[in-house]
Amino acid sequence: MRHWTSDDIPWEAFDASKLDADILLLIKAASLVERNAGDYTRYLKMVFRDEPDFLAIADAWEGDEVQHGEILGRYARMADPDFDFPSRFARFVEGYHIPEGSGNSVRGSLTGELIARCIVETGTSSMYSALRDATDEPVLKEICHRIAGDEFRHYKMFYELMRGLKEREGLHVFRRLMIAVGRIRETDDDELAYAWYAANEPADAPYDHDRCYHAYSTSAFRHYRDMHAERAVNMIMKAVGLNPHGWLGARAKTFAKRKMLSLSAA
Length: 266
Known about the structure:
Layout: H1 21-35, H2 37-47, H3 52-79, H4 85-95, H5 110-134, H6 138-169, H7 173-185, H8 190-200, H9 209-221, H10 226-240, H11 247-265
Helix pairs in contact: 1-3, 1-4, 1-8, 2-3, 3-6, 4-8, 5-6, 5-7, 5-10, 7-10, 8-9, 9-11, 10-11
């Protein structure tokens, strides 16, 4: 199937009267994170340098992510002509750098690295699905729908690669679960907080991690519904190798719903 491009977006259908100012702040921050895929691709290529199956898809994945960032940045500029995407992105990459380690996976194994990628794709797929369902602005709804589909496709791609490596490396399910939990906890690190800061705050404003992460998380999670939380848990459990419909999955879904509710109301 032909991959979509900016030309497939109905830009002329933009309706400013249906714009949600809160969602626009999220879109601005997301545009910077997505556009920064080059750093992650370099890191992943270094980690998977002996895995030709991964290297064969790495550039295509990066291309998707960069396109997401560019399209979100274009949308943000259309919705807010004062938003200077290039300068905001430059501010983001100047202040935030991913931990690249020493050439090996920071997760301790290739399987662990792919589990972490599955967690990231779960988060982005669920977020764009939530924003798609929350917005009435037709252009943004179409953009979020297409990006959510890409992120789910990426999840399946990383999941299939991980299945092959899992047998070879023999990573125990408990260790896989701990890697997933650890990656989920990393969502409150500097990346999302700094993206919010770089996208939405004045250049002379001091950066405060807690304040910026609080602003990001409350803005993001207030748009989630139960179905988004449940689907995210299903994807995480599958990546780990656990039954999402068992007792542990049920408890995880209850916890996820409560956690998202608490973050949105914080």
